[in-house]
Amino acid sequence: MRVRITRRSRRAVVALCAAAASLGVAGCQPFGDRPTADPSVTASRTGSTAGGTLTALALGPVTAWDPQRIGSRDDMAFATRTFVRTLTAYQPAGKVADQSTLVGDLATDTGRPSPDLKTWSFTLREGVTWQDGTPVTCDDVKYGISRTFSTKDVTGGPAYALVMLDIPKEPDGTSTYAGPYATGAAAKVGRAAYDKAVTCDGETITFHLAAPQPDFGEVVTLPAFAPYPQARDKGKDSTYDIWSTGPYQLQGTWTPSSGATFVRNTHWNRTSDPIRKAYPDTIVYQEGVETQSVVQRIMADGGNGKAAISLDSAPPAMQQQIEASSELRGRSVNPGAGLVDYLAPNLKSKKMAEPDVRKALGLATNRDAYVTALGGATAAQPTFSVLPSGLTAHGDADPVGGGPAGDPTAAAALLTRAGLTLPVPITVAYRSTDTSDKAMSALVAGWTKGGFKPTLKPVVDDYFTRIAEPDFAKGVDVFWANWAPEWASASTVLPPLFDSRLNLTSVGTGRDYGAVADRAVNDQMTKLASVADRSTREAGWADLDRTLVEKGYYIGLAQRKAMYLAGSDVRNFGADEAVGGYVELADIGVR
């Protein structure tokens, strides 16, 4: 998923004391692994006391709470821990390495695939109800997913169902099924195709897919695959309509630019929910508050700021204030976000077609300088991989050498051995912002010492569209880019960026900005798409990622980070990097 760097795209996370206490149990019950938990994703105050009001402060805006229309990952993270339950989910944990553990949520397990990975079945748990006490049924799940096919009325959410389900396509690639609101003969044919692709047998829902999907158990963590009661469906007017299956329900209505209050869903059955502790009685979500004001309010720790959390990352200058205070550090978290910046050498460039030139560029790249220009260690961390740290397949090793600061001497020597005349002129395109102008300029010194003569080419508007155009690419040797996964697997990063079969056409490079067309890489991706075992599959993605780096098909720069702050009465404040470092409310509490 390509991401624009905004306050909302860098939101953090909240939550994580894995206590199993019931609502009536007071006192403190910390994580079993709290002493060795990752400090960047777990704050120091823990507890399992139920009750109180938590205030969540954000700039916003939330564009939709309709589960099939939620497109923002931070909004997904809030919704799926409070009022939307999905077939599967990621288990909260105090260690980054454990945060990508997939568990059944609405379903009893993480899914049962057929040997060819084209058929997946999930059985719903007993005791899961809507906020009025009526049971959540297989038909509710099937109907909810059907709404994503109504692309004119239900807009904004992920469209994976349209791509993955085994439903015939029109000549233009659109689905022959137009969703539950369509009428007429064609709609009837489309409905029959959908009913064949998604079936219910009692409380077991089965999906028939067009191609093998080893990650389908993770795909259904997205709220686009959540249930929706047909009787409540308002179609295009359902933007902020909330009908809960989780521990909280909306009190009154949602007011855009202001927010709303969420109160306990009295029909939520704790025994049917393996994930959410739901400690606070009430969550007040207030949007439209400037980030600096949010952080100042929580730093002051007075009034209701004591039980408040920030949903937007603190500005860099305020991050330094937080870091300078041991008290503030104790109630803050600084997780890695899912967004990774990288460079894509243009393999259609005569210079970058040479492996030694690409390797030399990687050696001459000073990632430390880049991170410093972004705002320092609290704003980003150097990386050699395009896979963020929350993914199992992420590797910390430097496959090329040079370290985070680079080795320009070795780079220049490599260019000389390759027979090139130094300096080697290169043009580097990037998306221009005040921050990125500084960050890219910080790379110039290392590249220059490494034997290159870099010319930066800033682009202000429609950056990702322009760099994929053949005419624009002719004058560029290297492209800056960024990416974030859709779920906790490298399959949502490496194929979208480096599978030429998905990207390269006569009219552009798609997301494969460097025009990588490596048959061995494509074949390995095909092979991994048929590996059923998750750990084996992710290990394979890790190996492939290392190969991509060693071949110089991309050069990792930095993984963005966020810093979030909680008031002194907040307990179990933490961050979940598996879903990109977004707000997590599964175990949060108020003293």
What is the β-strand count?
A: 21
Q: What's the CATH C level of the largest domain?
A: Alpha Beta
Radius of gyration (CA) equals 24 Å
- Biggest sheet statistics: 6 strands, mixed
Q: Percent range for helical residues?
A: 25-40%
Instruction: Provide the structure class.
Output: alpha+beta
Can you describe this structure?
- This protein has 591 residues and is α+β, with helices and mostly antiparallel strands.
- The protein folds into two domains: 61-287, D-Maltodextrin-Binding Protein, domain 2 (3-Layer(aba) Sandwich); 337-561, Dipeptide-binding Protein, domain 3 (Roll), CATH 3.10.105.10.
- Helix content is 26%, strand content 17%.
- The protein contains 18 helices and 21 strands.
- The chain has helices spanning 73-82, 138-146, 160-164, 185-197, 216-219, 291-300, 316-324, 326-329, 355-363, 367-374, 408-417, 434-449, 463-467, 470-473, 494-498, 500-503, 519-528, 534-550, and strands at 53-58, 88-90, 102-104, 112-113, 119-123, 198-201, 204-208, 248-255, 259-264, 282-287, 308-310, 332-333, 336-345, 380-382, 424-431, 452-459, 478-483, 555-561, 564-565, 570-571, 589-590.
- A six-stranded mixed sheet has the order 14-18-13-17-15-16.
- Helix 9 (355-363) packs antiparallel against helix 11 (408-417).
- It is globular, with a radius of gyration of 24 Å.
What's the gist of this structure?
The chain is α+β, with helices and mostly antiparallel strands and 591 residues long.
Key structural traits:
Dipeptide-binding Protein, domain 3, globular, D-Maltodextrin-Binding Protein, domain 2, alpha+beta, single chain, six-stranded mixed β-sheet, 2 domains, five-stranded mixed β-sheet, 591 residues, 18 helices, 21 strands
